[in-house]
Amino acid sequence: WKVMWQHPVIGVGPGHWQLVSADYGFPAHKAAHTTWLEVGVESGVPAFVSLPLFYGICVVRLWKLVWQKGLYVDLDLVALARAVIASIIGFCVAAQFLSAQGVEAPFYVTLVGAAALKIASQHVAERSARMLARTGSAAVLHMEDPMSVRLIPR
Q1: Which residues contact residue 137 at a Cβ distance below 8 angstroms, ignoring those fewer than 6 apart?
Q2: In degrees rounded to 5, what are phi and psi of residue 138?
Q3: Would you give the distance in Å from CA 16 to the centre of its chain?
């Protein structure tokens, strides 16, 4: 924490924690053993905040997709969303106890989650167009929650 707040904007530099660890009472070349703090120390507070938000926003949006009532989305997408949520949460717990900055798999898993959200939103848009053609009512998306649909009479 101390190092991160001494260099809050850009940190000490990527891969430099092990070079400066001896200056703060740790053995030379000591690993941080937590991804979150290592990112904060090496890349600054903006990175420290952005990285958990990157994963957290994806999990929250997928959680809404999984538990959405009355939304007819492909069940394979719901299963995929559950798998992505479990994977990201598993990574976040593991990252608390190890330095995993170079690991790319969590980024790819998050990308799969983003693709599932995009496909689900296209399903909602197609359903809205079918409702409009069949009933003459326009199904619009809620601005607060784009995964839910409500009918607006013409």
Answers
A1: 131, 151, 152, 153, 154
A2: -90, 125
A3: 26
